[in-house]
């Protein structure tokens, strides 16, 4: 984006507006934004928040979390951006049960400028499936990708759905 900024005045002004108080020259030497997903939180009304730290490998061991069937919840991501603006950050999620794809969604998170404090993004509310056949173990793949198709994090994990919240 650096070379383009020199030639495009409107793009340079847009970037300055996104950067706020930061000096454009501080970020224009970097080619890629540094995006770190710091944590994922599962927020449900009938229990304390479940804060999941992101493992360095992107592969949590064993079931990463458990959910109660039929519960309403939403996800909260904590995202840190440095070096440069990240454009069009989105989250994709695919879930399988016994090898069959049962859910697939994409959610636009947004465009972010670098700042010292992490950004917090809340996803729309969702409901876990319910019933005897919905209970059990699921496999999922979650990716955070920007408009340039840079994958900033890929998580491969398992989770479980139970009749009640686990203790």
Automatic annotation (TrEMBL):
<dbReference type="GO" id="GO:0005094">
    <property type="term" value="F:Rho GDP-dissociation inhibitor activity"/>
</dbReference>
<dbReference type="InterPro" id="IPR024792">
    <property type="entry name" value="RhoGDI_dom_sf"/>
</dbReference>
<keyword id="KW-0963">Cytoplasm</keyword>
<dbReference type="InterPro" id="IPR000406">
    <property type="entry name" value="Rho_GDI"/>
</dbReference>
<protein>
    <submittedName>
        <fullName>Rho GDP-dissociation inhibitor 1</fullName>
    </submittedName>
</protein>
<dbReference type="InterPro" id="IPR014756">
    <property type="entry name" value="Ig_E-set"/>
</dbReference>
<comment type="similarity">
    <text>Belongs to the Rho GDI family.</text>
</comment>
<dbReference type="GO" id="GO:0007266">
    <property type="term" value="P:Rho protein signal transduction"/>
</dbReference>
<dbReference type="Pfam" id="PF02115">
    <property type="entry name" value="Rho_GDI"/>
</dbReference>
<dbReference type="GO" id="GO:0016020">
    <property type="term" value="C:membrane"/>
</dbReference>
<dbReference type="GO" id="GO:0005829">
    <property type="term" value="C:cytosol"/>
</dbReference>
